[in-house]
Design goal:
Elements lengths: L2 H4 L1 H27 L5 H20 L5 H18 L5 H18 L5
């Protein structure tokens, strides 16, 4: 209905609205089945880290994509660490994954 009259912008907004409704329905079902809640302060810290990364990458958008992708990942990880956005459970999971990866790559000390 909106797309023929408003074009690509309307398509983008309709897509975002559809995804938002789907995410909200999924969250409601997930919460009903598993009883898990949503930790808003934790989510907001992670969103803030993503926004920081996005601002820096946008400012450097003229650089090569091959440089921007790892730079963005590094900026996001640094922001997450500096803001202490990971829960203790997430930190333990990440430590285990890093330990396993270094073992597989042979980067551990004997």
């Amino acid at each position: 209905i909106l797309i023929p009259q408003y074009g690509m912008i309307a398509a983008a907004f309709v897509t975002v609205a559809t995804e938002l409704v789907g995410a909200l329905l999924f969250y409601r079902l997930f919460r009903r089945e598993f009883g898990a809640g949503f930790d808003l302060p934790h989510a907001l810290r992670l969103i803030a880290c993503a926004v920081i990364m996005g601002i820096v990458i946008y400012a450097l958008r003229d650089l090569s994509m091959l440089l921007l992708i790892p730079l963005g990942g590094g900026i996001y990880i640094a922001a997450v660490l500096l803001t202490r956005s990971l829960t203790s459970e997430e930190q333990a999971l990440l430590a285990g994954l890093l330990r396993r990866a270094t073992n597989r790559l042979g980067l551990t000390r004997a």
